[in-house]
């Protein structure tokens, strides 16, 4: 069915007293995917309400660029602001000009472009953005007061699931092909059900220790407090330069980390807790560096059991050059600065 026919049907249902929502439902039930959008239906109902009787496009004379009037630019701009998912075809249908003219108005006159939405961990409220900005400013002040000392004292931790099988990323599946050769195909795969939880404690020098959660156990406040005690013991053995220094400890705001017993253990060990804003994986070195690189390395590898997984993860971290850890933690300075610049919004790179 052509667009003119759609308009006649919309006009018919409008005269019968149907609302735009009911008209859209009728069209969907008959035309399926070829039905006009709800925005188109709503537009034409509004046109008929204001007295329009013709379903034909309004007469346009002169050269194509003559449709680019200030009134037309303003009209299209308002439509796009009302519904940012409108297609060029739908706009052209509603305003009665060619698709190329609509595209020219959007890109040249309005300087607009259509982008896919980017995934973020959470749609932040103004209060959450303000908290992220405030924490970033506070952390930057600590970092700039003595960068060398900050890096010497800084220790971070986080947890991640490591699967017995982790699918390759799309980037990893790239292959060289000859001109004219079709793209390689690959069946979609999902991570295996078998997995183990790894709690990783590390700093600018490397991994301090990794705890692998035993099957049947869960991480609660008491379990985490024991991990903190173990961290203190490992620091004495592996980081002797911290013997007379106060550890600057970084963790996220997971409930187990902020439980009464965990906070009491942090105070008992005399760790200085670095502030971390809620919903901020982009400001956590484990989340923006350590774990993504680990998962990429694991892509396509299969393991028979938890012991094989643990051995592989340990081997991966042991093989990393020490500079990788230092550079990743130093990168947090840029991320705090970017967070402040973005008024608390998420940092991509």
Automatic annotation (TrEMBL):
Protein species of origin: Lasius niger
Name of the protein this chain belongs to: Mariner transposase
Listed Pfam families: HTH_32 (PF13565), Transposase_1 (PF01359)
Superkingdom field: Eukaryota
Molecular function per GO: nucleic acid binding
């Amino acid at each position: 069915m052509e667009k003119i026919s759609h308009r006649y049907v919309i006009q018919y249902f409008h005269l019968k007293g149907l609302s735009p929502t009911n008209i859209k439902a009728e069209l969907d039930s008959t035309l399926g995917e070829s039905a006009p959008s709800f925005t188109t239906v709503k537009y034409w109902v509004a046109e008929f309400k204001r007295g329009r009787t013709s379903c034909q496009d309004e007469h346009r004379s002169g050269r194509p660029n003559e449709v680019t009037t200030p009134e037309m630019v303003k009209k299209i701009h308002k439509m796009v602001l009302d519904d940012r998912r409108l297609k060029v075809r739908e706009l052209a249908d509603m305003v009665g000009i060619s698709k190329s003219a609509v595209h020219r108005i959007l890109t040249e006159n309005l300087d607009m472009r259509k982008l896919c939405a980017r995934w973020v961990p959470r749609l932040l409220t103004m209060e959450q953005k303000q908290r992220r900005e405030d924490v970033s400013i506070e952390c930057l002040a600590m970092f700039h007061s003595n960068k060398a000392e900050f890096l010497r004292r800084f220790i971070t931790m986080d947890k991640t699931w490591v699967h017995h099988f982790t699918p390759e990323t799309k980037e990893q599946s790239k292959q060289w092909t000859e001109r004219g050769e079709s793209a390689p195909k690959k069946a979609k795969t999902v991570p295996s059900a078998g997995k183990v939880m790894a709690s990783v404690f590390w700093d600018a020098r490397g991994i301090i220790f990794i705890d692998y959660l035993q099957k049947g156990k869960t991480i609660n406040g008491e379990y985490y407090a024991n991990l903190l005690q173990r961290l203190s013991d490992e620091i004495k053995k592996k980081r002797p330069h911290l013997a007379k220094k106060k550890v600057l400890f970084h963790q996220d705001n997971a409930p187990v980390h902020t439980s009464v017993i965990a906070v009491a253990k942090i105070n008992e060990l005399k760790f200085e807790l670095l502030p971390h804003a809620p919903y901020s994986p982009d400001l956590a070195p484990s989340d923006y560096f350590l774990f993504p690189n680990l998962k990429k390395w694991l892509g396509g590898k299969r393991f028979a059991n938890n012991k094989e997984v643990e051995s592989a993860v340990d081997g991966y971290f042991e093989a990393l050059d020490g500079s990788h850890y230092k550079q990743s933690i130093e990168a947090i300075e840029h991320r705090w600065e970017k967070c402040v610049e973005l008024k608390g919004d998420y940092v991509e790179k």
